Amino acid sequence: MTTTPLLFCRSDQPVFYFAVKNYIDNAGLGSILEKVVGKERLSFADGLQLYKSHDILALGYLANLVKNRLNGDKVYFIYNQHINYSNICTNLCKFCAFGRDKDSDLAFEMTVEEVKQKVRDRLSEPISEIHMVGGIHPELPFKYYIGLLLGIKEVRPEVHIQAFTCVEIAHLANLAGKSVSDTLALLKEAGLGSLPGGGAEVFSPRIRQLTCEKKLSGDHWLEVAKTAHRQGLNSNATMLYGHIETLEERLEHLSALREAQDETHGFLAFIPLAFHPKNTAMSEHARTTGLDDLKNIAVARLFLDNFPHIKAYWVMIGPQMAQIALSFGADDMDGTVKEEVITHMAGAETAQDIGSRTLVRLIKEAGRIPVQRDTLYNVIEVHA
Amino acid sequence: MQLDDIYDKIIAGQRIIDQDYLVLEQAGDFFQLAFLADTVRRRKHPEKIVTYVIDRNINYTDICISACKFCAFFKAPEEKGGYLLSFAELAEKIRETQALGGTQILLQGGLHPGQPLEYYEEMVRFMKSTGIHVHGFSPPEICHFATLSGKSIQQVLRRLIAAGLDSIPGGGAEILSDRVRNAIAPRKCTADEWLAVMEEAHHQGLRTSATMMFGHVETREERLEHLRRLRQLQDRTGGFTAFIPWPFQPGNSALAEIDKTTAVGYLRTLALSRIYLDNFDNIQASWVTQGPQVAQLSLSFGANDFGSTMIEENVVAAAGVSFRLSEQEIRRLVTDAGFQPAQRLMDYSLVR
User: Fold this and answer.
1) pTM to 2 decimals?
2) A365 interfacial to chain B (CB closer than 8 Å)
3) Is the ipTM here above 0.95?
4) So what's the pLDDT on residue A313?
5) Domains of chain A: which residue ranges?
């Protein structure tokens, strides 16, 4: 018996942990365990091996080690409000059930006043973040977007605005006729606090060619993100999995994010997003299985050693799987979302909103400590 | 006993005692329980097969005098809208089932006040004429027939077996503790009566399953009591084929304010069941209450069977929970988890 078990276990349970070590060795993940215990970065080959493994318990156990080391027993959630200002979009990516042509019956766009009213409607709630994204609209001018930010801040001055994915930012830079950097400065001045992680999909050019050819490239997405970080704006990152991407393409995506983070340290959270086929142009695909969902969370936690948080997005995988994900590497359950529109048009069965009481209960029953946070992961309240 | 000593026992294949269960339940963390349950499952089923049955749950009536507080399905006899299926309707349902490759009917119903034992014998005879396996009448129904007819459990079973009854489903167990039964199902058979029916059924050559509906008013000691009583009976008769734990679904019932068991709660109880019931070969995942994703994960928490394709299911659906899975979907989930799916019969023999 080597001394390795004692490095990752409690010294009063040698039998159990020796058995676990055997289990992990038999799953072929022994060398990865050693790297994790030694805080060594995992290679591309390691990542592939993790993705190919069927031993979900071994994967979860490894990811959980990392999660515990980085975040202890804390699981974060935020009281936020989602607003989609328009679904009119010129990209019309094949995996999306939200975007619409301008002439569609289901197309909508909100005025700045309407957005302000939505914020006003919920002023009595302790909302600390407005999460706002929309389609790539062909006509709305740059001043509209500035107006959105100023308007929200007028109604709720203290709120943090996390808005506009890198895709939208690139578009806004075009509208403004300025560099991404200068555009971000203007948006920041108007109230922008941080960027959400959407629009990353899978960086692979092959995937983008086949599923979202009008969208900005993976490289461009990363450039926008890094530029934002250099401007003092944090952002999140996502990956849309469970469609036609290969395991290698997933790892290339994660590698690119890891590299970018090494440069700027500006990403707050990584959110793996399960593809929902209903009502999209790729509706013949099967939904991801629960094991796919947990695997992506676990592999992300293990591979993205420089990302402080991994989020289990309950709207996409359901609150039950999100709860389980808390033992598979996730330390964030996102928000008490109310009017989330995008995934629901693609067939997510979860309720539109989850109350904070339910979230707290789910987290506690998973043996974790619920921590209400703000956008930047400052603690608002610990629900011990 | 320390947690580590308990692990030692389990890893060595020894039986755990009641106190060990309580320690595990209190102090065992998510992964510890999973690994232990998985170890036990692998030992019993080294061939990495996950079985399932193609069947249909037919509820011949929803009219019921038991009126259990947790039930969203029953209709009181004086209520409008209750039904009793005709034999013609039964025949049609069986025909559909067989056309879909179904091998059995899980036949259960409310405790109907108005039909004699002969009616149920007739029903079984009629169903058997189609060649299908009749997995029918949970212990509360058997006890009800005994009361109605004035006959003993032994006699009732003898007559139903003579009519063709093939096996008995494990429903109506809820929690095998009289305190709990008095609180939530006072008009149902007692825990002793449930066990007596199963023991007699095993003696008369019938295989049966066993269930536990948890996550309502019971304590952890009462869940243990339930498992202990099952383990003891199984030691005596060996007649139980499988154990199916599933959490109470509060919707539309008289206990609707109870918080629904979470996925973690379900998986922990599943794992503990696998560890404690060392004399039960098969533990079934409950996709009906948990959905396909958690059910798939159950295969790593001690479950080795995916239950039924449930061509029809009414009882849980009445509580507002209605997941549906085809055979193809079940096979996909099982394969995705690294196992080989295999269709089985009620006694867990494989369909070739």
Assistant:
1) 0.93
2) yes
3) no
4) 86
5) 4-70, 74-382
